[in-house]
């Protein structure tokens, strides 16, 4: 049971044990891959990483074919660039749902989580950049009596 403290001197005499930071352990399957799931809007990405030459495959297609826009490729490769691991891992990704922008964000989220499973010491770098936090913003639903979620029909006096 916890002892009651009656003064500040009692507090100083009791040796408070410092809370230790959790120790993160490497999570790898029997094939030597790390797996993570990333989500953004309605897109869900399943990401597997393993040591390799930097080959990225998304839904059985190369990165340049699946994400044709350079901005989407840049979003996807941000975690690798920040951790300086551009050509060290091969990525296998399956992504479904949403549009291309949401899918790129989901792959970035999954890749960041997979990197922390493979190399736990990268967690602080990725966490500081905000790549491990799921962006929870989704499209607001349409309300009845409205044209869209908030837009009203045009008013006419007639």
Relative helix content: 25-40%
Distance between the termini: 76 Å
Described by the principal axes of the CA atoms, the overall outline is flat
Strands, total number = 5
- Strand proportion, as a percent range, falls in 15-25%
What's the main sheet like? Answer: 5 strands, mixed
What's the Cα radius of gyration? 23 Å
**Class by alpha and beta content:** alpha+beta
Order of helices and strands: HEEEEHHEHH
List keywords for this structure.
158 residues; five-stranded mixed sheet; 5 strands; alpha+beta; flat
What's the layout of helices and strands?
Blueprint lengths: L7 H6 L20 E7 L2 E9 L4 E3 L2 E2 H4 L3 H13 L6 E8 L3 H19 L4 H7 L29
Parallel strand pairs: 3-5
Antiparallel strand pairs: 1-2, 2-5, 3-4
Q: Outline of this structure?
A:
This protein has 158 residues and is α+β, with helices and mostly antiparallel strands. It contains five helices and five strands, in the order H-E-E-E-E-H-H-E-H-H. The longest helix has 19 residues, at 100-118.
How would you portray this structure in words?
The protein has 158 residues and is of the alpha+beta class. Helix content is 31%, strand content 18%. It has 5 helices and 5 strands; from the N terminus they run αββββααβαα. A 5-stranded mixed beta sheet has the order 1-2-5-3-4. A hairpin with a 2-residue loop joins strand 3 and strand 4 (61-62).
